[in-house]
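Example 259.
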Amino acid sequence: MDKFKHKHSLGQNFLKDKGCLIKIIDSCKVEEDDLVIEIGPGQGALTKYLKLYNAQLLCFEIDLDTKKYLDKFEDEKTKVIYQDFMSSDVKSILSEYKYNNLYIIANLPYYITTPILKKIIDDKINAKEMVLMVQEEVADRFSAQPGTKDYGAVTVYLNYYYEVSKLFKVGRNSFDPAPNVDSAVIKMVKRDNKQSVDEEKLFTLVKDSFQMKRKNLRNNLRSYDLEKIDSILAKYDLSLNNRAEDVSLDCFIEIANSL
Ligand code: SAM
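Predicted structure in complex with S-adenosylmethionine:
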């Protein structure tokens, strides 16, 4: 087979560490009547292991040059769709499938990590769990706790829909070619008991609160009813002098509900 030319622009860093691939598939309990989506199978390093679940497997790959590597994986349970995941009508493709739970397991193309997650949420793709390889720095941001420097608007947004945890670090040399950054695998478990809140109001409040990260809430939320916000912050041992990075998801929800 001709030597494959990796496309840096498509985030093509292929995983070559067998131990890491096994740890990824061991982190989800997928059953035969479930469906797994893989975004970006590349040459099939992870696909080969995902097939061990014997569940249905649906892969989205943008690069047709990978077809010669992926053809061998296709059968009655495994399908590869050669199209941009970002512009795919995933909901309508899923409507052709019968399955119990949906999982998304992928070594993501890093240039579109957040847009992919936003699409999964906006399109209501409803994955029960996701296990994703992302840049380590991004993993730290997504799974950050309030009161830490990594905690930001994207942390609150993702954690409203999914409980995000960092599973393990993966060094850059586990990939071919090695990227310039280390990676980490995160797990995202869908929250079935989300608190009721006007989501638009919540995320506008969160965006405004984090607008200028170094400023406190009093400064960032000038146009809001500060007295009301202060009384809720007090319940969480916080005040308007705190910064947004100190405010938990529950506290943001309570504030949004009071406005
Ligand atoms: N899963 C393989 C592995 O672990 O070795 C490859 C992972 S590589 C980090 C990311 C893959 O995503 C590449 O194969 C790339 O071509 C593909 N990709 C990039 N952008 C994409 C998009 N918008 N839709 C679908 N696949 C995409």
